[in-house]
Write a sequence for this structure.
């Protein structure tokens, strides 16, 4: 069982959540609206389930593997930009 730390108060069982959501046949990627495949394919492809805590209720969002990679690449590029010498010179 794979658990992901979702917030300071709870863990989320990603595979269990994928099983539950796939059984409805209605899940879609939060970012690109790609349709969630069957549970076996979703798990093997690397679909991600994230809990987003709100003020009144928590929401669960799905992120497809393609959008996960894009977001990871974007975060890496931003980190490198922040560490570049020109960024360091601008701060001084």
């Amino acid at each position: 069982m794979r658990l992901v730390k979702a917030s300071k108060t709870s863990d989320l069982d990603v595979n269990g959540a994928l099983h539950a959501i796939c059984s409805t046949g209605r899940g879609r990627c939060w970012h690109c609206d790609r349709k969630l495949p069957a549970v076996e394919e979703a798990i093997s492809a690397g679909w991600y389930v994230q809990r987003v805590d709100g003020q009144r209720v928590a929401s669960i969002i799905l992120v497809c593997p393609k959008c996960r990679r894009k977001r990871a690449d974007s975060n890496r590029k931003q980190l490198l930009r922040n560490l570049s010498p020109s960024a360091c010179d601008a701060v001084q």
